[in-house]
Amino acid sequence: MSVEPQLLDLLRALMRRTGGALALVSGRSIATLDTLLHPLRLPVSGLHGFERRGASATLVRRERPSPRALQEARHLMAEWVTKEPRLVVEDKGLALALHYRQAPQLETELVTAVTAVAERTGSGLRAQRGRLVIELTPGTVSKATAIAEFMGEEPFRGRLPAYVGDDLTDEPAFEWVNAASGISVAVDVAPPTSARTHLGSVMEVRAWLRALLDAAR
C-alpha cells in the first residue's frame, strides 16, 4: 500500500497554508503511517490516540496494555481465523483488529466475543467497533483525546478544528470537534453520525481541500 504523489503534494500544500497545523489521526500505528506518507512527516496520532507525535516531533505514548492480555487475545483471534478463514487479524503490536468484511453475517457474534475478551482481561483494553472491523485497543484514549492534545499546543492552539473521518471510530472525534465549534466531516458514512457535514467520497474530500487552498490564496 502506498500514497500517490498527488495526495502527498496536496498535504504538503495544506501544511504550508496552515503554518504546520495539519495532523493525521488514525487507528494505524505511527510507524505504518510514516511509511505510507514517506518522505512527508506530519504531526500524527496512531492507534486511536495511544501514541502521538506533535509538531515539535516529540513522540508520546500512553501506558502500554498488558502484554499477557494481548497475547491471550492473539491466540483467541488466531483460533477464530482457523475456524473461519474469511476473517483477517491485523496485529498492530499494541492493538489487534479483527476484520470481517468477507463475513459480515458474523458481526454480532464477533463484536460480542471481542467485547467479552476486553472485559475479562480487565487490563486497559477496550473493544472499538469500526466499519466491518472490531478492535482491541488501549482503553484510556481515543481519537478525540488525540485532537484535544493537538489543539492544546502550537501551531494548533487558538484555531478552530476541522476533522474528516469515515468510520465509527471517528464518532468521538466528531463530537469533540462539534463541542469546540469546529467542522466535522463524515465521508461516505450512513446516518446516524455526529458529523455535521457530509461528503460522499474521498475524491469529494480532495476537491473540497483544494477549494479551501484556492480560496486562501
Explain what this protein looks like in three dimensions.
The chain is an alpha/beta fold and 217 residues long. The chain folds into 2 domains: 5-62 and 141-216, 3-Layer(aba) Sandwich (Rossmann fold), CATH 3.40.50; 67-138, Alpha-Beta Plaits (2-Layer Sandwich). It is built from 7 helices and 11 strands. The chain has helices at residues 5-17, 30-37, 67-83, 107-121, 143-151, 171-179, 202-216; strands at 24-25, 44-46, 51-53, 59-61, 88-91, 96-99, 125-130, 133-138, 162-165, 183-187, 197-199. The strands form 3 sheets. It has a 4-stranded mixed beta sheet with strand order 1-2-3-4, covered by helices on one side. The protein has a 4-stranded antiparallel beta sheet with strand order 5-6-8-7, covered by helices on one side. A hairpin with a 2-residue loop joins β7 and β8 (133-138). The longest helix has 17 residues, at 67-83. It is globular and about 55 Å long. The model has no long low-confidence stretch (mean pLDDT 93).
What name does CATH use for the topology of the largest domain?
Rossmann fold
Major beta-sheet overview: 4 strands, mixed
Helix content: 25-40%
Count of beta strands: 11
Query: In sequence order, what are the helices and strands, one letter per element?
Result: HEHEEEHEEHEEHEHEEH
The stretches of 5 or more residues where confidence is low (pLDDT under 50) are none
Q: Do you know the CATH architecture of the largest domain?
A: 3-Layer(aba) Sandwich
Task: Tell me the β content.
Answer: 15-25%
